[in-house]
Design goal:
Blueprint lengths: L20 H8 L3 E5 L2 E4 L1 H20 L3 E2 L5 E3 H7 L1 H5 L4 E4 L5 E4 L4 H11 L8 E10 L14 E11 L2 H21 L5 E4 L9 E8 L5 E6 L5 E3 L21 E4 L6 H8 L7 E8 L3 E8 L6 H7 L5 E3 L2 H8 L17 E5 H4 L4 E4 L5 E6 L12 E4 L9 E2 L2 E18 L1 H6 L2 E3 L5 E3 L1 E8 H11 L1 E2 L2 E2 L10 E5 L5 H16 L4 E3 L6 H11 L3 E5 L1 H5 L2 E6 L6 E4 L3 H19 L1
Helix pairs in contact: 1-12, 2-6, 2-12
The structure holds adenosine-5'-triphosphate and magnesium ion (MG).
Length: 582
């Protein structure tokens, strides 16, 4: 392609709204333009890169035996009501009512649709296993779209769904996808960690997340210091804390007047205590009809995924003010565990609370707290509806299996799930087995964020000059830069090299603009083409051109007659390096 004929609107200014390098660079390099919050247009360079990623994903999915299909982006709400996920996805779903009053949503994912598809046309074990995938647009009305295409409201996702007859077959499909993912991310030049993940609103029994380690990532990965265990923060299980030192005197309960002091920080300041001494009492609505109280230390954070599991996997939500008043008898901020067990369906106590000797908590009376609350004495630690569990986020001071924890940030680029029979049972995806018995399919689902791969690659591959992209997903593999446009020899030689590179099968950009060398160099660095070949007056007089990898500081002089062969050799070598990294 010729630069002069392409739409590559690079910009010097740093876009004000972009907080992280990949977002800034994708705008500056003319890859994307924002339309509205969380929606972006791809310009020719960005789209070329994106299509390269799509190709890699498609090749690896096909090689792993998955079959590409295409399902509608408009999905009927009644299908979502059948699995109850219309509630789980909540406001994240872009919903609409059509002219006939039918409720619909823009696809945030497609388990319901693909399962009903299979339900209609698969009836025998002989038709299984199958793995169906699509690469198309998904919509999620993210609460906080940000970081450009890393978290957008509209994005390209590859979603695959396997349908299996039994656990062994599901394991096999899961493993095939897992291996395909390793190859996909390696071929895209991304370093990645594979960590255990929570199944969340997807449901199911097992999940792994593929995460690109990166300081600006929104995900937190927890690993043991011997690296034998890795999980994301939603999933990471911690050891119960040892029981606190019981040698201190245990004082009787003491009610203290704390007018208008409702938050943990305020109570601590007011009473001269520490958050770790506070027993936070949170009241939840569980499913449609139940309530639960969750006790957690003041310095800890509730882990919603873990708490949901303890509540039987149903939708949970912090109770509203009215329910809090009904249950605790006090204004928000003054609930405590004393006497609450009998008023709710479950009293869920985090391990760390059970390890406390005494604590401070709300008195179930507006404007009052109590000191010297003793777990086991002032509220039950066992019996009836009491559950002691790990329901909080891991912290730096926790351990797992006795080992210290390391925290790393990362970008989730893909996730695989074993779903079991949740969807097939509810939507009737059943088959007759060898004996003629009717059974629900076992399912797996496997997602990849295509746009996130590109953004993550730039997030970890950049310098002050611009993007540094892997050869497999850069918009071009090589750029030819004639830097003296007024010299007919330079122009002719650049044209010859360009033509021969195209003939040799390289993906080449020729910067044929009538621009100063500095402009050309800056743009080449900004858009991040991995290899550049400069044709200039001075070296050409010696019979040379200059070849430079984007990452290298200095070019290498190469005889012009050998330049094409040399460039093709480096391109090939760069591709081999990516394959080898997997
Ligand atoms: P996140 O936790 O980041 O919101 P998720 O776990 O909800 O993502 P999945 O349902 O697992 O996402 O979707 C599969 C893949 O789609 C993710 O691994 C991610 O790469 C991509 N993805 C999800 N949400 C977005 C988004 N808002 N913008 C861009 N890509 C996304
Ligand atoms: Mg995910």
């Amino acid at each position: 392609m010729r630069y002069s004929q392409m739409f590559i609107p690079t910009v010097k200014e740093i876009p004000a709204e972009a907080e992280i390098p990949s977002h800034r660079l994708m705008i500056r390099a003319g890859f994307i333009r924002k339309l509205a919050s969380g929606t972006y247009s791809y310009l020719p360079l960005g789209w070329r890169s994106l299509l390269k990623i799509v190709n890699i994903v498609r090749q690896e999915m096909n090689a792993a035996g998955a079959q590409e299909i295409s399902m509608p982006i408009i999905q009927p709400m009644e299908l979502w009501a059948k699995t109850g996920r219309d509630k789980d996805y909540g406001e994240t779903m872009c919903r609409f009512t059509d002219r006939h009053g039918r409720e619909g949503a823009l696809a945030p994912t497609a388990e319901e649709v693909v399962t009903s598809l299979v339900a209609a046309d698969i009836s025998s074990y002989k038709q299984l296993p199958i793995n169906l995938y699509q690469i198309n647009t998904k919509f999620r009305d993210e609460f906080r779209p940000r970081f450009g295409v890393l978290r957008s409201r509209e994005f390209l996702m590859k979603d695959a769904y396997s349908f299996n007859t039994d656990a062994n077959s599901l394991n096999e499909s899961y493993q095939q996808m897992y291996e395909a993912y390793r190859r996909i991310f390696s071929r895209c030049g991304l370093p990645f960690l594979i960590v255990e993940a929570e199944t969340g609103e997807m449901g199911g029994s097992q999940s792994h997340q593929f995460t690109v380690p990166c300081e600006t990532g929104e995900d937190i990965i927890v690993q043991t210091d011997d690296l034998s265990y890795a999980a994301n923060l939603e999933k990471a299980e911690v050891d119960p804390l040892p029981r606190e030192d019981a040698s201190a005197d245990i004082e009787p309960l003491e009610e203290v007047h704390t007018p208008g002091v409702g938050t943990i920080e305020d109570v601590c300041a007011f009473l001269g205590t520490q958050p770790a001494q506070m027993i936070k009492t949170l009241i939840y609505e569980v499913g449609e009809t139940q309530t639960a109280v969750c006790l957690i230390r003041g310095d800890h954070e509730v882990n919603n995924e873990k708490l949901t599991q303890v509540c039987g996997g149903v939708h949970i939500e912090l109770a509203d003010e009215k329910t809090i008043r009904e249950v605790s008898g006090a204004a928000v901020g003054f609930a405590g565990p004393m006497g609450l067990a009998g008023k709710v369906d479950k009293l869920i106590i985090d391990h760390a609370i059970a390890a406390m000797i005494t604590g401070v908590t709300g008195a179930n009376k507006t404007d009052y707290h109590v000191r010297n609350v003793v777990p086991g004495r002032d509220f039950p630690l066992e019996g009836g509806n009491v559950v002691i569990a790990d329901v909080r986020n891991a912290t730096q001071s926790d351990t797992h299996g006795g080992k210290k924890l390391l925290f790393t940030r990362g970008i989730e680029v893909g996730q695989v799930f074993k779903l079991g029979t949740k969807y097939s049972e509810l939507l009737g995806a059943k088959f007759d087995d060898e004996t003629g018995a009717d059974k629900p399919c076992l399912m797996g689902c496997y997602g990849i964020g295509i746009n996130r791969i590109l953004a993550a690659a730039i997030e970890i591959g950049n310098d002050e000059k611009g993007c540094i992209l892997p050869i497999s997903i850069a918009p071009f593999e090589i750029e030819v830069l004639p830097i003296n446009n007024d010299s007919p020899d330079v122009v002719a030689e650049a044209e010859r090299i360009y033509r021969q590179l195209v003939e040799a099968g390289a993906d080449v950009l020729l910067d044929d603009r009538n621009a100063r060398p500095g402009v050309k160099f800056n743009d080449a660095d900004l858009i991040g083409v991995p290899l550049r070949l400069v044709v200039g007056d001075r070296s050409l007089r010696e019979g040379d051109v200059e070849i430079k990898r984007r990452r290298e500081p200095k070019p290498t002089a190469t005889p012009a007659s050998e330049a094409v062969a040399k460039a093709m050799e480096i391109i090939d070598q760069m591709k081999q390096e990516l394959l080898a990294s997997g």
